[in-house]
Amino acid sequence: KTGSRIHTLSYSFFVYMIGSVLEFLFSFREPSFLHVFQQNATFWWIIAYLSVISTTFGTTVYFFASTKLGSATASSFIFIVPLSAYLSSFFILGEKIQSHVFIGGSLAVIAVYLINHTKQISD
Asked: Is this structure's pTM higher than 0.70?
């Protein structure tokens, strides 16, 4: 419903802005909160990458997909995120592939296929 009322980028911006403000308010309860400001530039580049590039880009793509495909179909692809993260760590970091993760990832891919294939049959 939101996709028809507000632009995807505006929606994404407001969701992250409100979420960031709320999380910032709750973080003051931690006594070690101010230690984060003593970190070096590498830490802040990593935080910027994770927040702006990874999270914002990924969620905005999801919002675009949900306006084009519908929320049910777009949501089914979320099952593939853990598998793609694991495969990325295999290719980029050289982590070993474990059998239980491979089996779980395969089941997630099958689930996405079944969700989308069953939806096409019923339409």
From this structure: no
- State the Cα–Cα distance between residues 94 and 89, nearest whole angstrom: 6
Q: How far apart are CA 31 and CA 71, in angstroms?
A: 40
For 68-87, the pLDDT digits (tens) are 877 777 777 777 778 888 88
Can you say how many angstroms the Cα of residue 114 is from the centroid of all Cα atoms in its chain? 22
